[in-house]
User: Fold these one by one.
Assistant:
Number 1:
Amino acid sequence: MTLDEVRARMRAAGVEIPEERLELVRRLLTDALGPVRALDARAARALEPAVTFDAAPPRDADGG
Amino acid sequence: MVGDELAYATIRELGARFRRRELSPVELVRAQLARIEALDPALSAFVTLTADQALADARAAEAALRRGDPGPLTGVPVAYKDLYATRGVRTTAGSALLADWVPDHDATCVARLARAGVVMLGKLITHEFAFGIQFPGHRFRPARNPWNAAHIPGGSSSGSGAALAAGLVAGSLGSDTGGSIRGPAAFCGVVGLKPTYGRASRAGVVTLSWTLDHTGPMARTVEDVALLLGALAGHDPADPASSRAPVADYTAGLGQPVRGLRIGVPRDYFHDGLDPEVARAFEEALAALRGLGALVEDVEIPHIWDAWAFMAIMLAEAFAYHERDLRERPGLYGEVLREKMLAGALVSASEYVQAQRLRARLAGAMAAVLRRVDVLATPTTPKPAPTFATVHDPDFPFARSNMAPFNMSGLPALALPCGFSASGLPLSLQLAGRPFDETTVLRVGHAYEQATAWHRRRPPLTPLTGAIP
C-alpha cells in the first residue's frame, strides 16, 4: 500500500490522520491487509459471518 | 508490609491457611494494602485502590469462613483490569475519555468472583482501551515490569501482570483480544489463560473488538488460574457470544499424568524471528514435557500466515466501537492510539469480510490439527519484554503475535513461565487446546509447572530504578 492510497482511503472515510503518522498507518494496513489481498475470493469456501460465533470445530466428514 | 512468603502464597495455600485459622482475610488484606502502599508508587499497577471495600469484603469472608464456607476463593485478594465495570468504583479503561466513569453495575465476571467470596483490592491499569500504550504525558502512568522497571510489563492487562509478579494480589482478571492476558503473563513471569471464546462472559467489559475479545484469569500458578476459571465459566445471557457448553471441574484433572498425550509444535510462523534465548527455553520446555511422557511432534498449520488478517478485523471493529468519540472528541485519545484506531476506518467493508473468511479457514485448519494432537505448544512471545524506550518510538512496529492465532480461532490458550533471559527477564510457554478443553491445557501446564521451578522465582523488587515513564 502506498501513502497515496492511504490518503485516498482517508478522504473516502472522512477521517484525518496527521502527516507524520501516515507511514505508521501505511505499515499497519500493509501488514493487516496482506493476506486479504492474497486471497482468491472465489476459490475460498463461502462464508457468511455468523450471528453468533461458535469456536467448535466444523462438523465434517469425520464426524467432528 | 506483608512478607514475601505471604504475598506470594497461592490461592490454594491461602484457602488452607484460612481454614486452619492460621490467617484471617482481614489480616491478609491489611497486610496487602500496606504492601501496595509501599511498592505501587514505583510500579503503578493500581489505578484505583478500594481499601474500604476490601476490608468490608474481608470481614464478610471471615464471617463466611466461620460458618464453614468451603469455597476455594473465599477471602482471596484480587484486583480487576480497569476495563471491567465495577459498580460504584470508577472504571477508566486506561483512558482520559472514561477517566471519571463510575458504572452502576458490575461486569458479569466481577459479580461471579464476588459471589465466590473474593476480596476486591482495586482496579489495575490497562493500556488505553486495551490497545494503546501510554506515552509520556498520558492521563495515567503505565505499569512497570517488576523484573526490570525499564521494561514494559506487557499489555494490555499491564497492571494485572505487574501486580501479580510483585505479590500485590493473589489473582486478577485480564482481557485478551490479541494476547493481552498472555503477553503480560509472559513478560511478568506469571500465568494467564485465555479461555475458549464464549467460555467467560465479556458483559460489562469495555469492548475493543467484539469477535476477538476474550476475558480470563491471571494468577501465579496454573492451579490458581483453574480455580478462578471455575468461578468465571458458564453461560451468561448478557454476552451474545456466551456458550452453553458444560462447565468442567478445571482442577479435577490437574494431578493426572500427561504420559501419552500428543503435543504438536507448529514452527512455521510461531518461530519466525525467535530470540535465541526464547528458542532455547522453549526447546528445554519441550524436553521437560517429553520427560513427563508426552509425545511431542512437529505439526504444520495450513494458512497460519493468514493470522496477520487479525489486525484488519481488530482495527475495523475498534473503529466501529469508537467512531463517534474519535470524530467528536479525538483529543481524549492518546497519541498514536488515535491514529491506529483511525486506521480502522480505512479498512473497506469488503476487506473486513474477506478477513473474516480467512479467519474461518484458519480456525478450521487449527481445529483439524487439534484432531491429531491434544495440545499445541509455542513460545508465547518471540522475544522477552522490550524497554519503554523501545515501544515509545512511534514507529515501533506492532509486533507479529504468537497469541493472535488463538484469538482468531477462539481456542483456549495458556501462558506460563518457562525460563529467564540472561538479563533476568521472564520467558513463557504457550499451550493451546481444543474448543472448551481447558481441562487438558491446564493439565499439561500444571504437569510442566510441577516439574520445573520457574514459577517460584520472585522479582528483585527493590530498588525500582530508572525514570518513571
Note: Chain B has a mean pLDDT of 95.
Number 2:
Amino acid sequence: MTVTTPPSNSAAPVESSSPREWMLENLFNTWYNTILTLVISGLLFWTFASLIIWARTEAKWSVIPANLPLFFVGRFPSDQYWRLWIVLTLICLLAGLTWGILARNVPVLFRQNIVIIISFVCMMMTLVPVGIPYRILLIGMVLLVVASAWGGKQLSKTQPDLTKWLPFSWFICLIISVWLIGGGLGLESVSTNLWGGLMLTLLMSIISILLCFPIGVMLALGRQSSLPIIRFLSIAYIEVIRGLPLITILFMGQVLVPLFLPEGMRPDRILRAIVGLTMFSSAYLAENVRGGLQAIPRGQIEAAKALGLNTPLTLGLVVLPQALKISIPSIVGQFISLFQDTTLLAIVGLVELLGISRSILANPKFLGRYSEVYLFIGILYWLFCYLMSQASRKLEQQLNTERN
Amino acid sequence: MTTNSTPKVPLWRDSRFWKIAFQLIILIAVLSLFILLGTNLTRNLQQTGGTVFNFDFLNSTAGFGIGESLIPYEATDDYSRVLLAGLLNSLRVMVLGIILTTILGVLAGVLYFSNNWLLRKITVFYVEIVRNTPLLLQLLFWYGLFLKLPAIATTAKLFNAIYLNKRGVFLPWPSGNAVWFWLSVLLIAAIASVVIWRWRIKIMVEQGKSGKPQLILLWIMGILAGLIIIFALGWQRPIPAENGRTIEGGLRMTIEFTALLVGLVVYTGAYIAEIVRSGIQSVPKGQWEAARSLGLKPGLVMRLVVFPQALRVIIPPLNSQYLNLAKNSSLAIAVAYPDIYSVANTTFNQSGRVVEVMLIIMATYLSINLLISLTMNGLNKAVQLRER
C-alpha cells in the first residue's frame, strides 16, 4: 500500500491581485495578445482623444439648449406647459410607488449605491441648461420619486391589499395624461399637429403596445386553435405582416387608410401611425405569446377539462396567466424594439424625436450641426433602451426565482 | 336489456355546433369587412382619378432618374424597368449584407470568449451600444460620416489602391475578358478540394492511411488557386483621371450604398453576436473539458467540438436576423439609395397608382422572405441531431 505524503506543510499560495499581475494575466499573456492589446489601446486612445478635442473645440453645442423644448415636447404651446408638468408629476409619483411596492421584500430600500445614483441624478439636473425655476422643478421630481418610493414601501407593509390596484392606477394615469396633453373636456385643446419630440415617441409606443396586446394574444390563441378557418386566418395575418418591412406598413397606414374609409372620414396622422404600429407589433407579439403558450404542459389543459372547465374558462383561468408570465421578457423586448421603431415615423413625416431633430437641422440657423444633434438624441435613445433592458433582465431574474 | 339512450343535447349546448358556427361567423365577418373596404376603395379611387385597378401603368415612361443601377437605365425607360433596377439594387445590398454580417457577428460572438480582457470588453460595448440605438439613427450617422469624405481633387488613399471620396469608395476589381473563365476554374477547384478533403478523412479513418498524398495535392491546388487569384484575374486599380474630376477603373461603391451596407452590417452583426454567444454558451461545459483532456488546443476545441454543436441552437434565430436585414434594407429611402422600396415610393407618388405598387412591393418582400426562410430551414435540417 502506497502512502502519499503531501509535498509540504506550507499554506496554500496566496492569490495576489495587484494591478500589474492582473494586466499580465489578462492583457499580455501571450505574444499575440500583447500586440493586440497595444494596437487596440492605441486606437482607442486616438479615438477618444479626437472625440474630446472635437467636443471641446469644433462642436457648437448651442443648438441643444436653444431647442430643448422642441426636443422634448415638440411645438406644444408654451403657455400650456403646466399641463405637461402635471403629467410628469403623476408619472414620477406612480413610478416611485411602483418601485417601493416592487421592492417590498428588500430590507433596506436606499442602499449606498442607490443614494449615490440619486445624488448623481440631482447633480445632473442642476447642470441642465434651462432657467433656474425649471431646474428646481426637476430636482423636485427626483425627490418626489424618492418620497413616493418610501411611501410605497410603507403602504405595502401596512395595507398590502391596496397594492393590487397599481396596474389599474397606471392605466388611469395614461388616460389622464392623454386628456391633459390633448385637451378637450374643459381644457384648451391642443391639435395633434403640435405634439412632437420625446413626448410623442413615448405616447405612441405606450399606446401601440397597449392596443396590440389583446390583438396579439388573440392571434396567438387563434394560431394554436384546432378550428381550421381561425388557424388559417391567424397564420395568414401573422406571416404577411411579419414578412413586410415596417416602413411599408406605416406608409400603407398613412396613404391607404383614408382610401379604405368612407369619404369624409380623414383620421388624424397620429392615429394612422398608431394603427400601423399596432398592426405590426401585434403580429410579433403573437409569436412571442405563442412561445409562452407552447411551454405550458398539456397536463394543465387536461386537468382543467377534468375539472369541467370549458375552453374560454380554461384559457382565461389556467393557460393565459402562465403563458403570459413566461413570455414577459420577450414582450418587454418587443416594447424596446417598438420604442426604437418609432424613429421610422420620421420618414412618413411625423415629428417624433428623430423627426423633430431633422426639422431643427433644416433651420438655417443650425444648418450642418448634424453631429451634435444626432449625438444628443442617440444618447437619449440609448439611455431609455438600456434602462428598459436592464429592468427587463431584473424582471426575468425575479420571475425565474419565483417559479423555482 | 335496457339501453340507456343519452338525452338529446340541445343545439345551443353542443360544442360541435359551436365550433362550426364560430368559424362561420368569423368567416362572414372577415369577408364582409373585405367587401366593405373594397367598395370604399373603388369608390374613392373613382372619385379622385377615375382610374380602375390595373397594371397598365408599368408600360408608361418613368421620367425620373435613379442614382445608381446594375442594369442600364435611362429616365425614358418605363416603370417596369425602374422597378427591376430597384429590385437588383435591393438584392445587391441584401446578399452582400448577409455575407458580411455573418462574418462580423460570428467573429464578435467568438471574441466574447477570448482570453484578452480588452477584446472581451470591446465586444460587450459594441453589442450594448449598437443594440440600444435605433437603426435609422445609426444609418444617418454613417451617412453623415461618409458625406464628410473629401472631394475628388483631394481624395483619401489607402495603400495607393483604395480611394475614398465624395463620389464613392473605389476598390480594385477584376476586369478583362477571361475573368469568368478563371472564376469557373476556381469554383471547380473549390468543389474538387472539398471532395478530396472528405476522401482523405475517409481513408484516414477507415483504412488508417496517413493521408499525406492528399494533403500535398490540396496544398498544390491551394497554391495554384492563389496564383490564379493574384495574376490571372486581371485586377484593375482605380486611377485618377487627368482632369482630376473622375476616377477610372476599379469598382465604384457609392457612399449611399456603402453607408447603408455598413450600417446594416454593424447593426445586425450585434444581434448575431448575441445569438452566437448564447449558442456557444448552450454547449455543456463537459464538452470543453473532454476535448481539452483529449489534448486539443483551444482553437481546435472551438472548431471541431463546440461550434458544430452550437450551430443547432444558432441557426433558427439566425434565420429571423437575416429576414430582419432584408426588411431593414428598405430604410435605404433615408440615405437616398434607390432600392426597391424607394423606387416604388417615387413610382406611386408620380403615377398615383398606390394600391398596385403596394401589391408589387408586398409580393417582392414576401417572396424574398420565403426564399431566405426556405434556405435557412434546409440548413437547420442539415445540422440536426441524427438520432438512431
Note: The mean pLDDT of chain A is 86.
